[in-house]
Predict the structure.
Amino acid sequence: MKGCRHCDDMKKMLIESKIKFTSRDIDKYKKEYDLFVQATDSEFIPAFMLITLEEDNKTSNIQLMVPDEDFDDLDEALIKVKRYLN
């Protein structure tokens, strides 16, 4: 979402940690965001969908993370993303 300071800060933290990610603007991808909100019952951002992509391009180990439920601040979010990747 353009103008979301927390989103911009999180992206910067991911870049500085050399973590590859795909950013999705909730205004541009509204239908996708609406499905995410329905699945998590949360409209808070920044939110994450962590996905493992297998060699055969199948996805597995999908984890949805939203503020106030899965992490309290951006530092904790980054720690959890790093744990997921290891």
Q: What stands out?
A: The chain has three helices and two strands. The CA atoms of residues 19 and 82 lie 8 Å apart.
